[in-house]
Predict the structure of Potassium channel domain-containing protein.
Amino acid sequence: KLRIIRSGLKCWISTKPKLHIHHQPPTSAPRPALDEQATTMAKRKKRLRKSVTGGGGSGQQQDEGLLWVQEVQIRPKYERHAMSRYDRFKSSIKKSAKMSETDQNDDLDDPDLDEDEGTTPKAASRNANFEEYGDSDDDSSDPPEPRQFTVNSVVTTVTFWKRLQRIFCTYDDTEEYSYRPNSLFVSYINWTFQKGFMVVFVSFLGIFMFINFVFAGFLKLAGDVNPGCIKVSGADFGYNPSTRLADAFALSWTTFTTVGYGMIFTSTGTDYHEQHECSAVVFLCTTESFVGLLYAGMCAAILFGKVGRIQSHAQVKFSNALCISMHRLDSSGKLVKSIHSGPLLTPQSPSEVTPQTETREKLPCPVLKFQVINKLGNTAGGEIMDANMRAVIGNKGATATISTFIKLQLAEFEHPFFSRVWQGRHVLDANSPMLTPFARNMVRDNDGYWPEGWNNPKSVRNALQFTDLIVILTGISNVSAATVHGYRRYKYGDVLVGYEFAPILFSESGSSKISIDFRLAHDVIEQTHGRAEPFGEEEDASLGSMQSQRSIRLLEIKD
């Protein structure tokens, strides 16, 4: 056994990698260009990181739960637009003149002079470019103004044989040979899903009439050339000159819809012997019939898509306001519940360590609430299964042009059986991204409790810091068995401090069935003992321009 262990140790020592340390004496040789580029790139990234996070310590706190950062440019209207043909022509002339001037400077270069000394125009231009865009170890130097470019895709010329192969052959590279639909057609399809059914019906009717009038004009021209190719109640086309357009339109829409009343039709061999002269009429009618079938299918597909879109939307109603409720006070102005701050009693220490314990009152953190109501709550089988709720808040970044979006942690974000009412809750504690950094530090210094001097609507509102609150609800509808979703975007002006949602569930006398009163979906009630903030005309002037930021209004209900 000892021999085996000894051989194993020798094998392990022989296979273990050895660390060789080479001491290189310092040299005055310049560093490689690769190291200089890496150092410069690191410094540029450091400056960019400082510009995004604001250069303070709050950037690390904002990175927690950060989803994305977007930058919005603030500029006058119509500042950036596509160049007109005249401006494009002037730009091309300036570019050609600049190129010709560059060619003349190249011709004046003397090859006998030393280009490294910068005596030739070419060398001077190269040195100037190096001074402007070259690597620099000075971190305080301002980088050059970046240039803006528009990237256009280069469309290669394809022969007719290649196009024919694309039609009848299948390519494995689907990214290169993919279908590119017409942008106008795609815009119309998206527009139909954004508008209501009545507007879409009117658009269908307008397109239907336009196509029929276009084909009617071509049929009128073809009928004027060969009147015998179109029969109108047994007579040739144009028998009544004043009704030629009306007859052509009648033939057009009956062909487009494949109705065919039999009063107007294209002639056959028994009606007109020279059938080779009717090729234009036959081609137009055949093409119009095919276009009519495609148009009917497209309209049906759009209608089915709109119906499916309705089924994919969750039948829920979000409250118009965000309510922030503070801790309740009793009639004497004291806290309803006291928190014992003395030593804890555990099985290991059943008695208190010291008798000098105190019971002092601490304030729990305020809670932000919003309400989601199931519109099918009073209907049997209208539940939403496996409902999930997510929330994201938007906030201003280091500058006015940068906005950050941070994930918001909800107290209850899952509901296996959402049938009636669901209130989303978020505690404004030390980890809440909805509070200012100063407010979070104050809560953290107060052992995670709300400061006693801040238990008023004005202080709570001053501690808030957000611009948008996006709530997304997803689940499976029990009605259609399809995945449904719904969302609501709240603004800062939708916040009501010191309010609670009114109860909306009720049951009739003599019945145990619980129902929802949808008339109270957006009703709120004040907290007791004057804890609610003033609103509207009663709003305190100390809140500044808060009234101008309001996106909701309160209507008092009087008995």
